[in-house]
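stuck on whats below:

***
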Amino acid sequence: MNTYYGSLCSLFYDLSKPTAPTDELNFYMSYVNKDMSILEPMCGSGRFMLEFIQNGYDIDGFDISEEMITRFQEKLEGNHYNGILQRCEFSTFHPNKLYDFIFIAAGSFSLITDHEQILLYLTYLKNWLQPNGKIALTVFTNIEYRNGQPTEAVDTPRTVQQQSIEIQLTGSTSYNPINGVTHSKMTYDLFENGIKTKSENEDFYVKYYQPNEFEAFAAKAGLQIESSFIDYNKTPFAEQDSDAVVYVLTRS
C-alpha cells in the first residue's frame, strides 16, 4: 500500500478534520456493545477510535503512517487505554484474538488501489473476524467519471489555520479510466507568522469502483454483503447513483 501522510499532511488533516462526523460515528457505534472486541485498521490520527476509547469500548487499531500514529498517541495522553495501537500495515498486523466488529472509516479503504492488495486485504479482514462478526467500510464509486468528464483537473486550493500557523494545500488530480485510480500531486506549504518555513510534497492514489466491482472482490475474498447504504443514515443502496457506498460485510 502507498505510504501517506507526512508531517504537514498529517497536521493539515487534523486541523481540517479535528473530530469524527457524528453521523458516521453513530453508524459504527450502532453495530457494537461494550462486550465486543473492535478493530479499526487505517485508524489515522484517531478521531474515530478515540471516541470509542473515551466511551469505554474494547478497541485496537493500526495505521501505516508513523506521523498519524504519533499524533494519535499524543491525543491518548490522559486517557486510560490498554489496547493495541501499532504503526504497521495489513501484512504485519498479527492480533492474538478475533474481532466482533471491524471498521475502516472515512472511505480510507479506497486508498488501497492495487487489485491484488484489495483482495488480499479483504481476506485479512475476514481472517481477523469472529465467525458471526461484521465489517463496515466505505468505498468511492467512479460515478463522476462515467459520462466522459475531464480526467485531469487542478484542485481547488485549501487553507487551514491554527493561531499563527497556516497550511496551504495546492495540487492537481488525474484519473486513469483503465484501473479507476486517481493520482493527486499535492503540495503543503507551512506559514508561521506569515513566513513560509516548510513545504512537503505528497502523492495520493485513490481507487474509484465501477458498478459491481467491489462486490466481486468481496465474494472472492470469502465475504458476503449483509447491507449496503448510500449514506451513514442507512439509506439502502439499490443501484441508484451514489458517489460512495457503505458496506456491511460478514463471512460467507
About this structure: Helices lie at 7-16, 22-29, 49-54, 66-76, 115-127, 213-220.
